[in-house]
Amino acid sequence: MKKFFAALLALSMTLSLAACGGSAPAASSSAASAAPAPASSAASSEAAAPADDAAGSKVGVSMPTQSLQRWNQDGSNMKSTLEGAGYTVDLQYAGDNDIPTQVAQIENMITGGCKVLVIAAIDGSALTEVLKSAKDKNIPVIAYDRLIMNSDAVTYYATFDNYKVGTFQGEFIRDALKLDTEAGPFNIELFTGSPDDNNINFFFGGAMDVLKPYLDSGKLVVKSGQTEKAQCATLNWNTEESQKRMENLIASNNYGPGADKTKLDAVLSSNDSVANGITNALVAAGYTKDNFPILTGQDCDKPAVKNMIAGLQSMSIFKDTRTLADKVVGMVDSIMKGTEVEINDTTTYDNGTGVIPSFLCDPVAATVDNYKELLIDSGYYTEADLAA
Ligand code: BGC
Question: Residues 267-303, buried b or exposed e (16+ Cβ, 10 A)?
């Protein structure tokens, strides 16, 4: 009987994927500037599974690292929400972004009887082999936050609108420097995240779509000349790495707050862990809240929000991990119960095997002006969490 249901699940997933992804154009996974705007229409797709199999079923949740606040929150939100919905959860963190550990943990989830896998990949392209056995066993795979590339085992993708994140960061810099009305030129340096994370195509691509006209016209100047995504990448989104690169940029371009120094007006950073390293380097170079360059971020990590309050970072992006966890648990539940899976994008995210039906949550730009409402009033943090 189980085999029959497994076959039914496989067939229905094949049909639903074909229905959702069939005619969609390929999205950019390599060229940053080509990241397309997502479709806005809501849709759904169906994955049938027998209702009686749902109760108590084991769900595998694989997270990349415990060294960054957001993934701890994602992991614990997923676990508690799934358990609340009646599932058993095998939650694993892959050390500190250790790819072989993540592969081994996923293997164990597959052999250990997980019925659905939820995976936030460290390296989006490193899971092709291990996921072949998930597919062989008809175990649906949900890519969590980061798209898993080059694997036809990926059933759904749930994330925030990553392109929007990038455009928010670019627009923030454009507006803060008043690029449409001031003469300039303004000096800027560019940082993005890990080159193995597909999201940076959208973060960096979205920001560059906004900033490129000003770079082309010479109103914005990157004195280092480092404008290619590969030159601006930060392996594993590592704070020490971004600090080192910022220190080098300061030294080689004579940036600094003094009269004998070159003025640095802005730094684009794709997230908070990278921004923290940049802030450390800028503070060490003598910048204070009174002359701090415009600096972007993402995640509203506690240290970054504290820096925003202290005037040492200009903005972040709030991605409410509770919302993402809820959406993913909804997906798991629909898959297990054979009901329609809620998706709202069927064009943007091609993982190299076709477009993956996706649900994109909405990111929100956060600054000192709205962080209280976004983060404290919503119960995401307490006042004490953000105390200096
Ligand atoms: C996530 C970001 C996060 C980064 C580093 C990205 O894939 O979308 O929210 O800051 O990884 O962990």
Answer: bbbbbbbbbbbbbbbbeebebeeeebbbbbbbbbbeb
Q: What is the pLDDT of residues 20-76, one digit of tens each?
A: 333 232 333 333 333 333 333 344 454 444 344 566 799 999 999 999 888 999 999
Pocket probe mutation, ligand 1, options 169, 299, 349, max atoms within 8 Å of Cβ: 299
Would the CB of 145 count as within 6 Å of ligand 1?
yes
The predicted pLDDT at position 25 comes to 28
Asked whether 345 lines ligand 1 (CB < 6 A), one says no
Asked if residue 174 has its Cβ within 6 Å of ligand 1, the reply is: no
Interval between CA 271 and ligand 1 midpoint (Å) = 7
At 46 the pLDDT is 45
Q: 242 CB less than 6 Å from ligand 1?
A: no
Contacts 24+ apart (CB under 8 A), 103-106: 103/127, 103/129, 103/130, 105/62, 106/60, 106/62, 106/130, 106/131, 106/134
Ordered strands of the 266-269 beta sheet: 220-221, 186-191, 266-269, 294-295
Residue among 63, 64, 123, 65 at smallest CA distance from 89:
63
68 Cβ below 6 A of ligand 1: yes
CA of 162 to the centre of ligand 1 (A): 10
Instruction: Give, as one character, the DSSP assignment of residue 59.
Output: E
Amino acid at 336: M
Pocket residue to mutate for ligand 1, from 67, 69, 70, 161, most atoms within 8 A of Cβ? 70
Q: Name, in order, each residue with C-beta under 8 angstroms of 22's C-beta and a sequence gap of 6 or more.
A: none
Residues of the chain with pLDDT under 50: 1-44, 46-52
Beta pairing class for 43-46 and 340-343: antiparallel
Which tokens in the block code for residue 289?
């809240």
Whole-model pTM? 0.86
Q: How far is CA 354 from the centre of its chain?
A: 20
- pLDDT recorded at residue 295: 98
